[in-house]
Amino acid sequence: MDATATSNEDLDIPADIAATLIDPTAYADARIHDAYRWLRANNPLGIARPDGYAPFWVVTRHAHIAAISRQNELFHNADRPTTLSTMAFEARVRQITGGSNLVRSLVQMDAPDHPKYRALTQGWFMPANVAKFEPRIRQIARATVERMIAKDGRCDFVADVALGYPLHVIMEILGVPEKDEPRMLRLTQELFGSQDPDKARIREQLTAEQIAMMLQAVINDFSSYFRGITEDRRRHPRDDLATVIANARINDDYLPEHDAASYYIIVATAGHDTTSSSTAGAIWALAEDPEQFSMVRANPELIPGLVDEAIRWMSPVKHFMRSATADTELGGRGIAKGDWLMLCYASANRDEEVFDEPYRFRCERKPNRHIAFGYGAHLCLGQYLAKLEMRILFEELLPRLKSISLDGEPVMTQAVFVNGPKRLPIRFELN
């Protein structure tokens, strides 16, 4: 019998904590971090049993998440949904696709497919290749800063800077025309923000059937768009990432259409959404802490540290799920074959055993062993590009500013999977 099948007082997480983990609104305020803090202190590897969900282990310690992420044969991505889903939603997805997930990107793959598919584009995202984009990224950053400066001392940093800047960068690298960027942004927000009332196509309380239909419609929109990109790049190859994906071959055959569409989707969405959130998170933190702002502005060599701390601080990807392929033990607890585990990255990145003063934003933090990009074989391909984009933007922006402060209440998106600032009103003075 699975370890998660029978209730056990020593293992089970309190119902109110479990309810917080599945509540999108809790991710838009401090309640999720309160829950994480309690779990790390009292039950860092426990079982949640919220109504409507299969029981799942909640992994909140940095060391446990790293241990799971190192063992890719023992803890699979693809056997169950890779993001937390209700039983009804999982059943509906299986009806639609015959599998556990609506897309089949690198995130939803295990060996032997995962290393083969990852190798197709890995060279594009390595530091040596990413560095060649720096001059163009700096041009984009300067133009973005000039548009912000033209706002006359007040702006919504999310809408006016953080959304558009990394979107434009990744779309240029991918090969999507600038005129289509609004479509890519809308689809990304609908895919990642489906639980947020401002981002969902259907705003009322959604059934599993409605959610699945909504997300499938978004994926179909993406797939239709990139089908045209694939046809074009096979006829007219260019020096862009779309050409690599369109012409990639596994075992001498082009990628299956669904796999190719999924590849485009992961690049086109994760390639900017999480960077937007971390970029806005940095400005939010600096606006609330004049000392940190003055420190990094006076010492530009601290900007790489600011970037890493912002990524740790925001941890836009809040979780991924894994499934045990065999009986095993972790943290002194028996995990059974087939058990489902929630890796809580935002909790790991505030783990008191790893980070000194984890609830303080410190751009001078060293070392900064955050795992916001994941860990092990599934470490985010785009991490070097994300850090480069953020570093360049702050190098261009911070010297122009004399001061920065909040100009209203920031608002976070409501989402259990990926979330970050939705509105960030700020005031700024120029030098």
Q: Brief overview, please?
A:
The protein is α+β, with helices and mostly antiparallel strands and about 425 residues long. It contains 18 helices and 14 strands.
CATH class category: Mainly Alpha
Overall 3D geometry?
globular
Name the helicity range.
Answer: 40-55%
Structural class: alpha+beta
Say what the CATH topology is. Answer: Cytochrome p450
CA-to-CA gap between the ends? 66 Å
The description of the largest β-sheet is: 5 strands, mixed
Lateral strand order in the biggest sheet: 1-2-10-7-3
Rg is: 21 Å
Q: What percentage of the residues does DSSP assign to strands (E)?
A: 5-15%
Count of β-strands: 14
What's the domain count?
1
Poorly predicted regions? none
How many helices? 18
| CATH homology-level superfamily | Cytochrome P450
What's the average pLDDT? 93
CATH structural architecture: Orthogonal Bundle
Q: How does this structure look, described?
A:
- This protein has 431 residues and is an alpha+beta fold.
- It has a single domain, classed as Cytochrome p450.
- It is built from 18 helices and 14 strands.
- A five-stranded mixed β-sheet has the order 1-2-10-7-3, with helices on both faces.
- α14 crosses α16.
- The radius of gyration is 21 Å and the shape is globular.
- 47% of the residues are buried.
- The model has no long low-confidence stretch (mean pLDDT 93).
SSE topology sketch:
Layout: H1 15-21, H2 31-42, E1 45-48, E2 56-59, H3 62-70, E3 75-76, H4 87-97, H5 113-121, H6 127-130, H7 134-149, E4 154-156, H8 157-162, H9 164-174, H10 181-192, H11 208-235, H12 241-247, E5 249-250, E6 253-254, H13 257-270, H14 273-288, H15 290-298, H16 303-314, E7 319-324, E8 328-330, E9 333-335, E10 340-344, H17 345-348, H18 383-397, E11 401-406, E12 411-412, E13 421-423, E14 425-430
Parallel strand pairs: 2-10
Antiparallel strand pairs: 1-2, 3-7, 4-14, 5-6, 7-10, 8-9, 11-14, 12-13
